[in-house]
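Run log // design_07
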């Protein structure tokens, strides 16, 4: 930093002393005075807006909206294991307290809704960063209830961003979806591909992305948009309308039932194990160059639903003999991500091969069945 006069020199010295204590890590923001962290040490002479810095706490407090869900509960565990404190905001409409049972004494749980500004104010106050996962994530439900889907996914995200800005949150990582792409004309799909969603779910998420990026462009708040593709792993509820094909196939395989297959099985997906997603999300919160970016996070490999079923049932020692049903409205035909941008900006790559992830998911489901 360039010192300008005694006052600026004193401020720089105060900043250096504050960070040398090792409690915080510093990354530069895009606009001076636009982005501030939660500087709780009131005796240090620092104030939000003094300099263009984003403060990401080395032992920070992170809010996870939708943290009682499948991905959110894994992310909370990942953050705790990294030494952070975790606060969860969830209305339990689809999330389950059972997902947090092993973390109940380690996380702060707030029962609330992202549609209520008072709940968001309470949840964001004192938070260093926010991972925004709360959403209506079902394509089929969004087709039945498009207005509700928009209210939660688009307006709810805007309310969260406003609350985060008011309470001095350093950065918000908005978890979007590959559904914003629709049926992309060419694969692998890149982040600059024109969105063409096929459902109110994808459309509402595209709107949420634009709000997040607008806050970044205007210098109101640091934001990052993550577009996960097909995430799977333990704790994904196969009975939920939000569940993916893997969780439903896993349940059928373990229970000795023939699974339902929608379409002819030639449709493809890009699968990613949930632990790999959590690593990417944590890195998106920390990496300076990620600010204001959209990043695909996926396995980077295309797998047909039929091939998935054959591999999964083989691991369970059974033949894949699905019952065939018509393809569902709003479902994407083919999906494959380019993950080059995430590799470059985050230094991230998936680490869990599909078969390894399926083994772990099957093991979890077997234990669930034995516990009934």
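design_07 sequence
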């Amino acid at each position: 930093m360039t010192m300008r006069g005694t006052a600026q020199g004193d401020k720089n010295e105060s900043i250096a002393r504050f960070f040398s204590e090792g409690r915080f890590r510093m990354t530069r923001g895009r606009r001076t005075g636009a982005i501030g962290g939660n500087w709780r040490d009131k005796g240090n002479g620092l104030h939000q807006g003094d300099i263009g810095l984003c403060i990401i706490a080395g032992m920070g407090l992170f809010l996870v909206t939708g943290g009682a869900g499948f991905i959110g509960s894994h992310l909370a565990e990942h953050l705790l294991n990294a030494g952070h404190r975790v606060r969860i905001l969830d209305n339990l409409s689809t999330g389950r307290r059972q997902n947090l049972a092993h973390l109940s004494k380690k996380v702060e749980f707030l029962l609330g809704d992202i549609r209520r500004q008072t709940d968001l104010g309470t949840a964001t106050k004192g938070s260093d960063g926010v991972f925004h996962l709360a959403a209506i994530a079902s394509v089929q439900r969004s087709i039945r209830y498009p207005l509700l889907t928009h209210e939660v996914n688009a307006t709810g995200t805007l309310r969260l961003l406003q609350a985060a800005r008011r309470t001095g949150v350093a950065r918000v990582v908005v978890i979007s979806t590959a559904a914003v792409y629709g049926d992309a004309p060419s694969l692998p799909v890149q982040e600059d591909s024109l969105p063409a969603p096929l459902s109110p779910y994808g459309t509402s998420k595209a709107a949420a992305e634009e709000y997040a990026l607008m806050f970044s462009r205007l210098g109101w708040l640091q934001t990052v948009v993550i577009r996960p593709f097909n995430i799977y792993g333990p704790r994904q509820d196969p009975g939920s309308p939000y569940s993916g094909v893997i969780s439903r196939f896993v349940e059928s395989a373990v229970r000795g039932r023939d699974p339902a297959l929608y379409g002819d099985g030639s449709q493809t997906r890009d699968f990613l194990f949930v632990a790999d997603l959590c690593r990417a999300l944590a890195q998106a919160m920390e990496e300076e160059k990620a600010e204001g970016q959209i990043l695909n996070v996926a396995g980077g490999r295309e797998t047909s639903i039929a091939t998935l079923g054959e591999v999964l049932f083989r691991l369970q020692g059974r033949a894949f003999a699905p019952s065939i049903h018509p393809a569902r409205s709003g479902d994407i035909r083919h999906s494959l991500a380019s993950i080059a941008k995430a590799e470059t900006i985050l230094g991230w790559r998936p680490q869990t091969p599909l078969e390894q992830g399926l083994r772990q998911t099957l093991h979890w489901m077997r234990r669930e069945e034995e516990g009934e």
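The longest strand covers residues 222-228.
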